Amino acid sequence: MRINLNQLSVIEILKLSKHIKGKCFLFSCLEEVAQEFTKIFYESFTTDSGKNPFVLVRFFNTCSYHNLPEDIRAYIQSEEQKKKPLPEDRYLTLMGTYGDREEWRSRKDSKNYQAFFLSDPQFHAKFPMFSAVFRQIGIEILSGSQLDMSILIKERHKQLSAFCVENAVGSNLIPKQSEFVEPFAIQSVFGFGGIYPTGNVYIIAIFSREKINKETASLFLSLNPVVKQITLPYVIREKIFNEYLPSGKNSKEESLGNLERFNENVVDNHRKYLIEKEVSDAIRVELEIANEHMIELAKELEKSNKNLQKEIVKRSYTEDALLESKRQLQSVLDNTTACIYIKDISGKYLLINKQFEKLFHITREQIKGKTDYDIFPQEMAEAFQKNDKKVLEANMPMEMEEIAPHDDGPHTYISIKFPLFTSQGVPYGICGISTDISQRKQMEIALKKGNEILEQSVVERTRKLEEQNIQLVKEFEKRKKIELALKESEKRFRVMFEQAAVGVALHEVKTDKFVIGNKKYCDIVGYTIDEMKEKKPGQITHPEDLPVKSDNMQKLIDGRIHEFTMEKRYFHKNGSIVWVNMTASPMWKAGEAPDFYMVIVRDITERKKAIESLVESNERIQLLLDSTGEGIYGIDANGLCTFVNASCINLLGYENAKQLIGKDLHNTIHHSHRDGTPFPIGECKVFQAFKKGESIHVADDIIWRADGTFFPVEYTSYPIKKDGSSWKRVGRF
Question: What is the 3-class SS of 404-444, one letter each residue?
């Protein structure tokens, strides 16, 4: 098995414990078990980069001199020339080793680390970490010596110990700095050990090239009783080294037979009881440590949860609010009048909202895996795909107009499209928010017909606004991604919510307080989210707009309407007035008590200014026309009246301009000769001049009043040309 050290948990350690128990079974002696354990431990871990985090793993055990094999005795005698070893002398002996170098993978090849005399005055200087372990489990190696006990990990089980040197570089606890620590980039050293009923002590030391802190090292405490369980029978039965086993019987099967016969014929009841009791105690300790880790983990989770709750409270969220936020975000998607959808980079749909389902008669289950070509006419599908490709190539949000089919014919949409990224910054899809602007487009066309020159100014202004909006979207791209703690689906919803190019806010019905809003909403009103939480919508709404908004809200709460849209004014934080187009939608379902409502606002301040300028211009022109005593009128290419001044209305005997505008002016005031005979339009000099694009002056003619009488007039008619041909005509009499 392979365990990522950077993502280590109690669960992974427990799995490793089970794995070790399964592997370290039916060996002949402690030496073989120790070697297998070090190999498993060395090979079981990895890092995020796929490298092995450990340089060397070693297993030590204390033994009396008379129990050591001949090769270790020879090593001791060569090392201790001044002192002849006694049978009862105890040595810390290397039992198993595994590491990066080949010579570190055999006990016999690790020549300088075979055995160490425990009563040697230099033992503490050579192994200060091990001395601390001995003292913790109740064995004093060198009485009165000063030991660094800060490296120990607190362990309440008296027969177990654990240590961790977090910073190995430069530490006097690891003497061989230039020979070992620096060349092999050792960052930390940790390990654990314990004492057997025989009085012997085992210690496992791990040298790591990855940084290990005490919190991580403490997770390995669960392995300590496991090591004791699998090694205890060999220690009690004194099956320590291969050299002391009967020759020719080293296979696992033969060893099992030997052990069974040993249990039956040699080991007395006291030893059996001792093994069973100690193994049982080790299992109990293993469970206690695992339970303690679980309790600590639960405490950490509880602590983290409390900290998270404090942070959430600071932001006006609770744990329930997170769930509510997800529901509200889903409600935003399903209750907005805009079409919201997500496609992968190949153009296949991943998600749509209810508005999309309603307009295009397809469910979110049916649309999964389909592309635009499966849903829309080919020409429209190609346009959609082309726009998607632009967004992905630009790797930034873009706004464009798109045409989509409806039951009553094509509709025009403003689509905000932006790429979606994984946590590694790789684009995996595209999100679109499309708003139906067909009604607005019709109004724009009407305004263009009214005054082409002014409309050009509006178009230019709109273009600048769109450029500014795209620039704002670019800035918006720099926002941080949503916290990774939420589920991926919630991340997508949050990205769409925060990156939307329209202002979105949520209010509580009961208190009418601001609950949550996106950056665009805050930009529109000039307040931060925290500042908005201290305000109600009425405090920043123009007083003249409050009655209409309140009336609509009451209808929404009563269920008489499902949503409403209105133009209203906000007071910006800097004191200026901001015009917005606001759509309010309920967050509650039919039959539920009203709780929250959502508003989507789009800044239309510049457009309102342009329209006001147009109205003011028209009013000034009308005042100029009304100030003259001559009758002045305008007709279009079809002969329909487009405007009249006050003198024209009075001279013709009408009450107001509505009685003339839109009517065929020839058939209304120029339909007959003096004798009452019809005057065909084909003979009308005004009509003939219109066709030729000429100006005319008639000195003697008549015009008919509303009451059926006529009066003589002298009139002049001028053409208004566009693209070289007559477009409109102005007359005066």
Answer: EEECCEEEEEEEEEEEEECCCCCEEEEEEEEEECHHHHHHH
Cα of 686 vs its chain's centroid, Å: 70
- pLDDT of 53 above 90: yes
**CA distances (Å), origin 469, targets 66, 449, 464, 603:** 87, 27, 8, 10
Mean pLDDT of the chain: 81
Q: How far apart are CA 222 and CA 283, in angstroms?
A: 10
What stretch of H or E contains 610?
helix 605-626
For the chain, give the percent of residues with pLDDT over 70: 80
**CA distance from start to end of the chain:** 101
Q: What is the pLDDT of residues 658-683, one digit of tens each?
A: 888 888 888 888 888 888 899 888 78
Place of tokens 């975000």: 329
Backbone dihedral region of 124: left (phi > 0), alpha (psi from -120 to 50 degrees) or beta?
A: alpha
Contact between 204 and 227 under an 8 Å Cβ cutoff? The reply is yes
Q: 57 near 204, Cβ under 8 Å?
A: yes
Q: How confident is the model at residue 694 (pLDDT cuts 50, 70, 90)?
A: confident
What is the band of 500 on the pLDDT scale with cuts at 50, 70, 90? Answer: confident
- Report residue 478 as tokens: 């720099």
Rounded distance between C-alpha atoms, residue 597 and residue 582, angstroms: 12
Q: Are strands 427-436 and 339-344 parallel, antiparallel or unpaired?
A: antiparallel
Tell me how crowded residue 612 is: count the other CB atoms within 10 A of its CB. Answer: 11
Sign of CA dihedral 208, 210, 213, 216: negative
Strand (E) or helix (H) holding 536:
none
Rounded CA separation 580/574 (Å): 16
| Chain centre to alpha carbon of residue 381 | 30
Which single residue is written with the structure tokens 């200087």?
125
Q: Do residues 13 and 223 touch, judged by C-beta distance below 8 A?
A: yes
* pLDDT band (50, 70, 90) for residue 297: low
Q: Is the full-model pTM beyond 0.90?
A: no
Lowest mean pLDDT among 2-11, 210-219, 620-629: 620-629
Nearest 10 degrees: Cα torsion 527, 529, 532, 534: -130
What amino acid occupies position 652? L
Quote the CA–CA distance of 571 and 349 in Å, as a whole number: 40
Neighbouring residues of 50: CB distance < 8 A, sequence distance ≥ 6: none
- Size of the chain in residues: 733
